[in-house]
Amino acid sequence: MWKSGEVKSSYLIPWEVQVANTNTSNYLWEKDNSSLMVVQAGLYEVQFGFYTDRKPSIQMFVNGDIVLSASGLNQYT
Predict the structure, then answer these.
(1) How many CB atoms sit inside 10 A of residue 43's CB?
(2) CB-based burial, 10-26: b 16+ in 10 Å, e otherwise
(3) pLDDT at 23
(4) Where are the domains of the chain?
(5) Whole-angstrom Cα distance, residue 34 to residue 16?
(6) What is the pTM of this model?
(7) Residue 47: CA atoms inside 13 Å, Cβ hemisphere, count?
(8) Are 36 and 27 in contact (CB under 8 A)?
(9) What is the pLDDT of residues 11-62, one digit of tens each?
(10) Given a cut of 80, is residue 72 above it in pLDDT?
(11) Which among 71, 16, 74, 53 has a CA at the least distance from the CA of 8?
(12) In this structure, what DSSP letter does residue 36 have?
């Protein structure tokens, strides 16, 4: 969970609080780091939500490649 509302350099969002982790040996995270590591290869579903007073521009990267992009309201690629 991102609680502070502050971003890191390059506008990366740091993970600050772990809310749930169903497999701590597979889903690795480090406080204040902007990335997560998944050990076991496979098909994963990712869900996220951002609640803000501005139109956000959000990108999700997998292995350095953009795999999901959302900008403004109701715009997805």
Answers:
(1) 4
(2) eeeebbeeeeeeeeeee
(3) 94
(4) 1-44, 48-77
(5) 9
(6) 0.70
(7) 0
(8) yes
(9) 899 999 999 999 999 999 999 999 999 999 999 988 888 777 778 888 899 9
(10) no
(11) 16
(12) E
- Map residue 55 onto helix, strand or coil: coil
Instruction: Tokens for 14, please give them.
Output: 């740091």
Contact in structure between 30 and 24 (CB atoms under 8 Å)? no
Between CA 64 and CA 41, with CA 13 as vertex, the angle to 5 degrees is 40
Amino acid making up residue 24: T
Give the 3-state DSSP-derived string for the chain, with helices as H, strands as E and coil as C: CCCCCCCCHHHCCCECCCCCCCCCCCEEECCCECCEEECCCCCCCCCCCCCCCCCCEEEEEECCEEEEEEECCCCEC
User: Given pLDDT bands bounded at 50, 70 and 90, which one contains residue 74?
Assistant: low
How is residue 75 written in tokens? Answer: 């715009």
Residues across the chain: 77
